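URGENT: need a sanity check before tomorrow's submission.

F., can you look over the Endonuclease/exonuclease/phosphatase domain-containing protein record below? I want to be sure the sequence and structure line up before it goes out.
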Amino acid sequence: MACVEFEHLIVVSIYRPPCCTYDTFENIMEKVFAKLNKQNKSVVICGDFNINLLEASSINIKFRSLFKSYGLFNLFIEPTRISQSSSTCIDNIFTNVKPLHKCIIQKLSSDHCGQVVSLPYVHKKQVDEKVVSVPVNARRLEKFRSNIVKKLPSLSYQNDPNFLYGTLFKLICNEFNNTFTSKTFSLNSRKSFNEWATVGVHKSRHRLYDLYHERSYNHSVEFREYVKKIFKNI
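Structure tokens as predicted:
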């Protein structure tokens, strides 16, 4: 595995040997995804995974569901390794970016085809927009009313109604500012799913994808009861 990190993009290159068990590969990738999520950047994972996406197998389903649970989708579903005896799709590119262009280059000196993808470059200067809010609740309203009632007897009453109005208005404004303090919120502070989701949450979503897939062909009563039990426990 090799990794290069740019300002807005992380590129990971992987080779999974055929002798490597899928469980070992998945455990390693879970750790990789946990680190990638902390960066909150666009991701491209490419390489030779030695898992044929053209073959209907449980490993194929687990493999694609694993990447899909982290928002990464494969760009190719056609043969990427062509030999005299086989034609498989074991090389691929997974990304969370919509490509501008993609293609497969054949007739190379290797029996593996080349893959080319063009991604958009978006350089956005994030502006931290803020909004000021004054929370109002029953507790603050009661405090506001109580403080005004307590200070009313101390007001200086004079025959001039304008002076009395100004004094009362000043008292109300001061108590309002002291009671209803403002709070500033950043509109860009909302975290994405990959920022807050733990490895356990990703695994649960991964399992949910598996159940959705199995639902397409498993219509047994036992399976429905099993799914109901899982969601009841949640």
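My own read: The radius of gyration is 30 Å. The domain at 2-125 is CATH 3.60.10.10 (Deoxyribonuclease I; Chain A). If you see anything odd, call me.
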